Structure of DNA repair protein RecN:
Amino acid sequence: MLYRLVIQNYAIIDNLEVDFSRNLNVITGETGAGKSILLGALSLILGERADPAVLFDKTRKCVIEGMFKVKPQQVQAFFETNELDMEEAVIIRREISSAGKSRAFVNDTPVNLSQLNELSSLLVDLHQQFDTLELEKSGFQREVIDALAGHQEQLHAYTRQYQQYARLLKELKDLQLQRENANKESDYNKFLLDELLEVNLRENEIETLEAEQQVLSHAEEIKGTLSRVYFQLKEDETPVLQQLRQLQTSLQTLVAFHKDVPALAERLQSSYVELQDIASEVERLNDQVQYDGERMEQLNDRLAAAYRLLKKHNAHNTAELLQIRDNLQQSLEGVLNLDDRILALEKQSAEAFASLENTAVQLSEQRKAQTAPFEQKVNALLAQVGMPNARIKVDIQECPLHAYGKDNIEFLFDANKSNNFGPIRKVASGGELSRLMLCIKSLVARSVALPTLIFDEIDTGISGEAAKQVGVIMKELARGHQVICITHQPQLAGKADAHYFVYKHMEEDKVKTHVRLLTQDERITAIAKMLGGEQPTAAALENAREMVTQ
């Protein structure tokens, strides 16, 4: 509930504080006294755009502050989503500088207008004359029937299930598109893979073949050099190994004469052993190297095939070609796996659809069960508020499954018992829509935790018994909800739990708007003036007293 509204420097309001009751609050006053200004200021903390022209004093900023008592579950999701600190009281403040810059705060934390709009919709339902956008929305009409059907938990479960189903369909669609694109490439990829598989390269094969080709290409040169080296090491007239052996023997004769000679002799011995091993290795390599024309032809053919693949795939070595082969295999296997995944998702989505369809049928039956009682109650209330010939009818048409079932719900209206029903948005006037909204909200109030309800002259165009019945409905509605109503009707003002009087007063050569909470006697006088003018008669005062005490 809105328990306090503070307005500073707005229009013709200098400084104003209003404390509201938790039930039916009625605001009255002369035309032009500033009742609409109050709502204009309130709309700023509900997220309306600011206009610097509304500043009372152009040298000061305008501040509007609304203080709300809330139930945690009413706004908890909003506060968690927007990472705001949750408190027992929610204080919304809007500031407008003289330069036109606007700022908004929730519990002293800055927020943007989008956030402010979202929060305010949870706290206040502002219904102004001719403001029928909510009633015209199909979503609101469905919510009304669902509230009366009392199947919110089942509906929420269905909506969650539908969201999961929608995600399944999206995943399925993405996979089908992926398969379609993959199929376009799969034939070419298979051709590329077959080429690679046909050549069947082994790890490092190109590099190994190139090395072998080098050996065969230079076989004669290699054998000649190796033979010469071997000959000089072991078979020359004075082979190197024989000379080393002789040098070692010469050093051995000096061992007894110098302490460093043994070390030198040992090193010569090591060199001799190493060269002997080298000679054996040279001989082995020489025996291995044999020019093979047939093998050379095989190598050339194998390398030519490999080089074609390197060029075709813009690769540089065997490892890159093998990686390309593996990637192509994975891609083709992925196409096959897509079919399996698509089949599994199709089965899942079909099962989810069947479950949704079953629940949607139940929701539809429950909604249809509420239409006749709803129509009867609304029509009775319409007669009560001065529209005896008006009728409402609920049209429920089956449509494809959506997030709230399989129903398209629309309220149809006939103002004159003509049986020519048409959509509310097309056939109902502003005054009819206002009273129709009041009737509907009074019905669903027991089923839905409505926020603070604010009505701006909803009773325009009615009087007498109809105005009295509007007051009765308002009073009943206010038993469980805070209601704030601006009215010119004494019958409605008499039902108030708190009656506020808006008036203008000249101060320092400026007209300022003030609001005063009336006492019981002041209420009687104010209502009597609404009945009989500025100088109410004794009969008007008595009539007013009856209205207040009823």
Remarks:
- Confidence is low (pLDDT under 50) at residues 129-133.
- Residues 406 and 484 are 37 Å apart (CA to CA).
- DSSP finds 18 helices and 15 strands in the chain.
